[in-house]
Every structure is written in structure tokens, then in C-alpha cells.
Amino acid sequence: MNNLKPWHRTIRKNTRPTDPINMDRIERWLGADKMLHLQRSMRGWYGAPINVRDLPGSVWITKDGDFIGKFGRGGFASAYDAFEDHLRRSWRELSKPQYGIAHAGFTSISDALARASSGNSQNLNGTISKAGPTKVVGSASSLWRVGTQPIAGAAGAAAPGGTAHVKSNTGAMAFNNPSSGTLHLVGADFSASIINNAVMLYDRLFSVAKTIASVANESVTGVPTRYQSSTATTEDYAGGNFLFMEVGATAYANTAHNWGVAGGSNECLYRNQAGTDNSILPVLAGNPGGVATIADRFDMPVNTWFAPLASGDTGIMDLAQMRCSASVATGALNFVIGHPIGIMAFPVINSLLPFDWLTNRNQAPRIFDNACLAMFELPAPATTATTYTGMIYATSAAP
Q: Is 134 left (phi over 0), alpha (psi -120 to 50) or beta?
């Protein structure tokens, strides 16, 4: 007998919508500034469309900045208007008598909620609070090394080994692996203290500390343990894995530098999503200057949160070699490989936004056992440090 519920099939089909969404609706809902911010953040992206988690419906943004999927809002009202209506309805409901119907039975998707209430649901890390760093307009910033919940993460181990990240690492969001079946994101309640910021929730697969004050080629032998398949139809497919250069606790000195030197085997090298070794990473400019290399900033050009890959490549399995064009006297930096899970954008500030990732999406993203879940800020619209607070919910599907 087939015991799969409809929601089980939904979260496992791993398909993405292709229907274009009217841009006027997106602009009306998010506001022009937030919409353009998300579009700029996707320039040059080589992977599959990324789900915009806080938009109701099933909305994805492509590498060309187009929004696709299903979106029934934005005809007349903005996200702020809708949230105001939500608060009014909540206050009305709270004024009514509340009778004892907790843990009442559900059907279909509601069966998922019943399953959650019977011990198959959890809050990732309990609660999450990240006090972000001071930012540079147009640059991405890491939330890995800042507190308070989860506490600050550590730098990757030195080359050649590096660190293959898992959920037990300091800085990762804590959760329990399911005893059977697979774990999926189903919802969140989250807020940001500054308007129009956006964060990427990602699986931090691997990091390795770059040797400072060196122009030598550095070999990397460590490899991630997740998203390592070369088969495009598997959930563990390496397509979409991305690389970024993350400044640590010590800012880089004011020295012009590039990541990689063209020609002569002095480039940064990686293994691509098809398993091809020694693929060449295009030379990427770092950001010299006291402000340009502040702690936790991505050391890459503005409006960039991922390193470009060779033509035709859509993901990176592992690194083979790091190289800097100049000897930078002081600083700390990691090469980091991650896999995107979803974007959370905040068109409303200091309000807990309810995100429904189960009933309003085509799929609830998979969380692999032992995943190292973390967040970073997409290229920033302002320099003010932002605090992100909330809860993220996950439920395990039956095997």
C-alpha cells in the first residue's frame, strides 16, 4: 500500500516552475528598490533559479533577474499592506475565546502538521539571532563569524586539508537528523532591523584558510561531504554549488590583489559539477582598501556573492588550488564552498514576517543529514549593521 501523502510527493519532485510572473506585481509587493536589489544580486549566476522564500506562492528568481512561478499577490497591495491586514486579523482572533482543540487532526497537507505534532518537527537551532557586521554598499557580508545564536563560527583549517563542514561545527544551526525519512524546511518567522536587506540561507559545505602574505600556489586536498554527485537528477547534485572569498576577523591590508593569475598554471583551480578536475576559475578582483576589506566582507567585486566559474560550468565539487596575485601583509580569509537553499528578503523592518514554505511552495527544500546551515547577507543596500531574528521550522517526511 502506498502511504505517501500528497505533500510528500510535492517536496520530493525537485521541480521548478517556468511561468513568467508579471513584474508590476513583484514591484508593487516588494517595492522597486527591493526588486532591483534582488535582480542585481543575481547577475552572472550560473546555477538553477533560487526560491525567494518570503514571497507567497512559488516564486523563483533566475540568473537573468526574471521572476518565475506562481504569485497571486501584488495586484493592489504591498507586503506592508498585507502584513498590516494580517496583524488586524490576528488581533481579532486573539480577542475571541480559545477552546481546547490543540493537536486536532488534519487531512492531506494538514497530515503533515499532524506528523509534525507527533514528534517529527523541530526548530532549527531553537531560535536564531545574528547581529551582522557593518557593511559596504553593494557588497555581500558573512554572518558565519558573528553571534549570538548560533554562536560565532571558526575559520576553516589551513591548506591543504581545510574543513568539511557538518552540523556539529561551532557556528552551524543545530538540529537533529531524522531517525528515518528526510528533513525539509517548512516554515519560518523572521525579522530584520534594516529595510530591503536580504539573506541567503545556505549549506556551508567546505572552507579553507588562505595563507596570508603569499603569492605561491596552494594545493587544497580536502573535499565536502554533501552535494557531490555529477548526476543532475539526484538531490545530491553538485550543480549550484558556489565559491566565495570570505574575510575573517582581521581586515585585509590595503594591497591591490586578484584571486588567480592568468596563465602558467597559477590560477585558482577546482573540480566542476561533472567531475572534471583542474577547471580554471576566471581571475577575480579582490577589494583593497581599509573599508573595502573590513571583517566579514566578501573579498570580491561589488554586487557579487559568488565567484564566476569557467564557461559552461554550473557548480563546484571541490577546490584544487588557491592563488593570490599579491602578498597581502595582514588579514584573514577563507575560500568557502556553499549550496544555496533560499533567499529571505525583508521589505518590512522590525516585524516578524511569517513564511510558509509548505503550502505555498512547490517543494520544501531538503536539509541533508549533518548539514552545516548558515546565512550570509546578499549585496547590501546600506552600510548599517543589521540584526536578523527568528525561527526556522523543519519537518521530516516519511521514508
A: beta
Q: What angle do CA 229, 230, 232 make, to 5 degrees?
A: 95
233 residue type, one letter: T
Q: What are phi and psi of 123, to 5 degrees?
A: -90, 125
In angstroms, the Cα distances linking 171 to 64, 263, 298, 305, 398 are 33, 37, 18, 20, 29
Evaluate whether 399 touches 369 at the Cβ level (below 8 Å): no
Q: What is the distance between the alpha carbons of residues 340 and 259, in angstroms, rounded to a whole number?
A: 22
The count of residues in the chain is: 399
The C-alpha cell of 13 is what? 519532485
Positive/negative CA dihedral, 198, 233, 164, 310: negative
Q: How many angstroms separate the CA atoms of 286 and 316, rounded? A: 20
Cell of 292: 573595502
What residue has cell string 523563483?
A: 60
pLDDT tens over the chain, length 399 residues:
444 433 333 334 445 567 889 898 888 888 888 888 888 888 889 888 888 866 777 788 998 899 998 887 766 566 556 555 554 554 454 444 433 333 322 234 565 566 566 678 899 998 999 999 999 899 999 999 998 999 999 999 999 999 999 999 999 999 999 988 888 888 889 999 999 999 999 999 999 999 999 999 999 999 999 999 999 999 999 999 999 999 999 988 888 999 999 987 899 999 999 999 999 999 999 986 555 568 999 999 989 999 999 999 999 999 999 999 999 988 999 999 999 988 888 988 888 887 777 765 546 788 999 999 999 999 999 999 999 999 999 888 777
* pTM (predicted TM-score): 0.81
Q: Where are the domains of the chain?
A: 10-77+105-397
| 324 closest CA partner among 281, 272, 279 | 281
